[in-house]
Amino acid sequence: MLPSDVLGVTIYNAHTQEFEFKQGPVFTNFLLADEINRATPKTQSALLEAMAEQQVTVDGESRALPAPFFVVATQNPLDLAGTYPLPDSQLDRFMLRISLDYPDRDAERALLTATDRRELIAQLQPCLDPAQIQRVRAAIANVLASPALIDYVQALLAASRVDPDIRVGLSPRAGLALLNAARACALLDGRGFVLPEDVQTVFVAAAAHRIIPGGSSQRLRDQLAQKLLDSTPVR
Prior knowledge:
Structural class: alpha+beta
Helix content: 40-55%
Radius of gyration: 21 Å
CATH topology of the largest domain: Helicase, Ruva Protein, domain 3
CATH architecture of the largest domain: Orthogonal Bundle
CATH superfamily of the largest domain: Magnesium chelatase subunit I, C-Terminal domain
CATH class of the largest domain: Mainly Alpha
């Protein structure tokens, strides 16, 4: 797969004698990148501008993506053959990372005995249209984060940058993602303001994949994120 397979390509139309841009699959509201780390780093990097700027640039021309636009990606364990690690700059563009373990006994039994999941997917109906999603996003942006709450977020960011087990700490982009995720958590709980508990709820999912462990640290990223959370007091 090449970057043009994701973004699109300009081709010559012999009938009109003009060049035409054929949109790639990135021109959508919801992009599912299944097993993203099987793509080469060059192809993975094709999503950097799309995820950060909501646009793509092909042949020197920038083209806006549909609104809303967001990416959900899955990846295989890095020890499997044919996988490539995602660049840190790309990991930083994912708001959350969630690791899935084996299902519990009841969930596994439901998978074994229930209707084929592919049939259930075909029966799904939309819950929200794009305009409704945009309104939800606007509501999230209006959830209040007090100065004291911002202090707490900054304390977590600062702690990651001085921890001896962490080579590269959390970026300002990580702080924005953490705060937005906490605002969404508060809104889902029916509140118009963010509590420290909201930050704590989303912190590992929002921060762990952005942390780069130091050379001597044997801890996993999730463990380092949890350590930051446990050692940073709420004031």
